[in-house]
Design a protein that fits this description.
single chain, alpha/beta, 5-stranded parallel beta sheet
Length: about 375
């Protein structure tokens, strides 16, 4: 797949010429208006390189690239200009974080050599991020599986809540979705400190003892203190710390923080966990959502709106019994997958992907599994 290159210049002839030179090697997009170029950027753009003219109406190239960096920080930024001087070059590097400052006219070989290095820089930056994400996520998934072995009920909660968190975070257009997924996976780590029966009492809506209530309010902070010790997980730990915090400022931690000052991840976890608890208690999505509406002041109103939309999406799933060979990504386990001797291999509510399906096939070869498998299938 070709790398995507964005060219921004207020001279149509320049854009046309550059596009002709590059299109055989790159997927080239052009824009003559820097404001329109900025408005077109979203989490799905994934431009490898952006090349901007310096002198343009509305804003110069340095101002444009500075704004562009906030929207797409991994994209390599370059300036190609006929107004070259040392001050502009220094400003481009210092303020626009520009990788290369090229002058017009720029011969084709020089342009392509610099463009190749810019693409390499993009691959280096994104490669490091992907490696970090995969390493962290793999470690967290291992920790989550261990937590599920200690308390299977927590494992089932996490499988469901991860789906809700992913949906809500996507609706908010977050750029680092993996952080929210990790926050969901680790959100119940502190629950392991709760006395036996506390989690079941919370799920059933029963009144807690003073000791149970105190420990339940503490569990997010316990998880935060453990997770914050890991490199690069401080922001994730903060999301987890605020999972019981109401949008109106109610709930723990009792620090006076409210509204949009609460970390977005904490607001998402609060509504996702509460919805899951009511859904398990009443067994009906509409009833569960009605309970959230009755205390709507505790939830981010935008997230409450998105959650209502999610219910319509989930309504398009149907229950089906399928064979091992019929398993497909995006199916959700409606019941546990069991071995022939009754061992629980994968827990219900887990969304399947290629890796999990491969794992099921491995179990089938080694120990045998009970078929058919009950799943929720997107219709």
């Amino acid at each position: 797949m070709k790398h995507k290159i964005l060219l921004v210049d207020d001279e149509p002839m320049v854009l046309s010429s550059l596009k002709r030179q590059m299109r055989s090697s790159y997927d080239v997009y052009t824009e003559s208006d820097p404001l329109k170029a900025l408005s077109s950027i979203d989490s799905k753009s994934h431009f490898s390189v952006v090349i901007s003219d310096y002198k343009m109406p509305q804003m110069n190239g340095i101002e444009f690239l500075k704004k562009f960096k906030k929207l797409s920080p991994e994209t390599t930024r370059m300036i190609l200009t006929g107004y070259a001087d040392l001050d502009n070059a220094i400003a481009a590097v210092n303020h626009g974080h520009v990788f290369r400052f090229l002058t017009k006219p720029c011969d084709v070989d020089n342009l392509f050599n610099n463009l190749k290095e810019a693409v390499n820089q993009y691959e280096l930056v994104t490669g490091k991020r992907i490696l970090l994400e995969q390493t962290l996520k793999g470690s967290v998934e291992l920790l989550t599986e261990i937590t599920s072995l200690v308390n299977p009920e927590i494992g089932e909660i996490l499988n469901r809540v991860r789906r809700y968190v992913k949906y809500l975070a996507q609706k908010k257009n977050v750029k680092d979705l993996w952080r929210y997924d990790i926050a969901a996976m680790l959100s119940q780590l502190g629950v392991l400190i709760l006395p036996e029966g506390t989690l079941a009492a919370v799920a059933a809506g029963e009144e807690l003892t003073a000791e149970q209530q105190q420990l339940f309010e503490m569990h997010p902070v316990v998880a935060q203190s453990l997770i914050a010790k890991l490199p690069r997980l401080k922001s994730i730990a903060e999301m987890i710390a605020y999972q019981l915090k109401g949008f109106d400022g109610s709930g723990s931690p009792f620090d006076g923080v409210e509204g949009e000052n609460i970390p977005l991840g904490g607001r998402i976890l609060r509504i996702a966990l509460d919805y899951d608890r009511y859904l398990e208690r009443y067994g009906n999505p509409s009833h569960a959502f009605s309970h959230l509406e009755e205390q709507s002041e505790a939830y981010d109103p935008e997230l409450l709106y998105y959650l209502e939309g999610m219910l319509g999406v989930e309504a398009h799933y149907k229950v089906a019994d399928v064979s091992l060979n019929e398993l497909r990504p995006r199916m959700i386990l409606y019941d546990d997958i069991l071995s022939h001797d009754g061992a629980k291999l994968l827990r219900k509510s887990l969304e399947l992907n290629k890796d999990k399906i491969d794992r099921v096939r491995m179990f089938a070869d080694k120990v045998g599994i009970v078929e058919p498998i009950s799943v929720l299938v997107p219709s």
